[in-house]
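I am still getting used to backbone structure tokens and would like to learn alongside you. Label the sequence line and the structure token line clearly, so we can match residues to local backbone shapes. Would you write everything just below, so we can both look at the same thing?
***
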Amino acid sequence: MNTVLITGCSSGYGLETARHFHAQGWSVIATMRSPSANRLPESDRIRLLPLDITDPDSIAATIDAAGPVDVLVNNAGIGLVGAVEATPMALVRKVFETNTFGTIAMTQAVVPQMRERRSGVIINVTSSVTLTPMPLAALYTASKQAIQGFTGSLAHELGHFGVRVRLVEPGYGPTTRFAQNSQFRIEDLIPESYAAFAGPVFDSYAAPGLSTRETDVAQAVFHAATDITDRLHYPAGADAVALAIAS
């Protein structure tokens, strides 16, 4: 039975991805900062492990407890929308610690076992902000673009050892609590001088149209995990697919 380890499973994409892999008969190691927040079904094929991907000791303990994994899904992330000049550097560093350095640290932790077995898949969940420039998302984009470049290069590096590396690029999903994850109110990060610019931007985000559902991402991640081709990019959601085609 194949085993997948997924980060950030308390809600959103991670939760739905864990449910999807479980429904497909996989053994799922679902990680989150606080397992008490678990919303997954009870099953002998689901294990819950506490994990803070910004803490090296937490990563080491989780990898040790997990044992061999066939697929790592780096899903945990922090959303951030705001003007660059109004965003505290402490918040910028927090976003990079999770979205960028946490993803790299988790990857480093599983590579040795996959390299030795000459098999495995690493899936990094980024965002459609890497497909086209989006307003008021410069810092979030920077944290995800770093992983975009990291993943492309890593695919060459680990391909020599039979390990596949993938990018799943979700579009805009209003139900995923994107901005709330930053623990800052958007209003605090948009100065009054930006109001005339920001208003239409947020109106466009709220307007009906193409968007990404949690199930779209779960299905894209599963496809990336089971695809035996050399494909790197897997846009997830109708809006992300449209952007990928246009770019």
